[in-house]
Amino acid sequence: MPHDHSHTAAPSDLELRVKALESLLVEKGLVNPHTLNSIIDTYENKVGPRNGARVIAKAWTDPQFKTALLNDATAAVSSLGYTGRQGEHLQVVENGDEVHNLIVCTLCSCYPWTMLGLPPVWYKSAPYRSRAVSEPRSVLREFGTELNAGITIRVWDSTSEQRYLVLPIRPAGTESWSEQQLRQLVSRNAMIGVEKAKNPRVAENIPP
Amino acid sequence: MNGGHDLGGKQGLGPIKPEPEAQEPVFHEEWERRVFALTMAAGMLGRWNIDQSRHARERQHPADYLNNSYYENWLAGVEKLLAETGLLDADANNHDLRIPNPADADKILASGGPTTMDSHKPPAFRIGDSVRLKKIHTAAHTRAPSYAQGSIGAVVTHHGCHVFPDSNAQGNHLGEHLYSVRFSAQELWGRDAENFDVLIDLWEPYLQALDET
């Protein structure tokens, strides 16, 4: 088992409580320990923001796919093999010169797992959940994102099983970029809407 | 219920302080991995649904909910569900349960659980209709966020008929029409608000046509 703490430190009450629960469930035959490890592996290594980045880069380069994605995102991403838990009903919302979209779940932590994996800590935190719907410009500023005063912000509060993904604006100066190269400009944060896609001039390690 | 989880518009919670994206691990502690997997695996036993699971996390003192880290709330939730369903009782009869192996779990996670249902009645609202989110001051589970209750918005999308969380949390699998409703920031927060819109997914029983009283 990996250790995040010092080897001399005693396990915390919380760690003991979790261990006790796991032992009890395994002893009673209610969970299969191999299944636990497999679930962790899926969300730690297989499902993550690279899925969403592939979808966005494809939408930037393939107009037919983009139309399909905006019409029925669940079907469009399923054609690329992305289906599953917390992605059953997907809607993609497009940023433009006049509109900027931002995703939140004020009541819990609803998030498009099939596209982005599990949400980051800040997305699940009380400050983000409280402020995204009441002062989004101030929230965006905290992420270093400034928008022109004339841009309409649309905040999507994910109260149902609809899951939302932002289609960011394709950065200028990437006209000759391939879909593969473009994927590297699509951050997780841009697909939540707290940032824009990465600037190709400052993005590192990307071939021109 | 409008417990510690019902956070939209609450003040005094401080800055967000996001961890840089490139440096943030999926889990920060080993126990978080275990709580996540235990919650998912226990959920696959089929003894509770997602709305009962959410409600179990919500039914805490708001001070506890806010003081807990995210996965501490998940732990509190799954402990509560296991206790309430009696799955861990000495005399529990769990012989009918099918315990998913890794391949079963992969299949469950990859297929998900769509919440669309057949509709037995036409939708009451059309795109563009003005609607008011009713006051829903219930101790039971609801997905009508308190910050928008009483406010007026416009229907922008009809998503079809979806499982109604308020009844699903009570174990009744019923469908209701679901809409995205757009509220202006001025309607929600007053004249001094920043200029923006909030879109909220709301089920038909939450909504009132403006010509009704």
Helix and strand topology:
The complex is a heterodimer of chains A (208) and B (213).
Chain A: H1 13-27, H2 33-46, H3 49-61, H4 63-71, H5 73-78, E1 89-94, E2 99-104, H6 113-116, H7 121-124, H8 126-131, H9 136-142, E3 152-157, E4 162-167, H10 179-183, H11 188-192
Helix pairs in contact in A: 3-4
Chain B: H1 30-43, H2 50-58, H3 62-67, H4 70-85, H5 102-111, E1 130-133, E2 152-163, H6 165-168, E3 175-184, H7 185-189, E4 196-203, E5 207-209
Antiparallel strand pairs in B: 1-2, 1-5, 2-3, 3-4
Helix pairs in contact in B: 1-4, 2-4
Structure description:
The complex is a heterodimer of chains A (208) and B (213). Chain A contains eleven helices and four strands. Chain A has 208 residues and is of the alpha/beta class. In chain A, the strands form two sheets. A two-stranded parallel ribbon of chain A has the order 1-4. In chain A, helix 3 crosses helix 4 (63-71). Chain A is globular. Chain A starts with 12 loop residues before the first helix and ends in a 16-residue tail after the last helix. The mean pLDDT of chain A is 93. Chain B is α+β, with helices and mostly antiparallel strands. Chain B has seven helices and five strands; from the N terminus they run αααααββαβαββ. Chains A and B meet through helix 1, helix 2, helix 7, helix 8 and helix 9 of A and helix 1, helix 2, helix 4, helix 5 and strand 2 of B. Strand 3 of chain A pairs parallel with strand 4 of chain B, so a sheet runs across the interface.
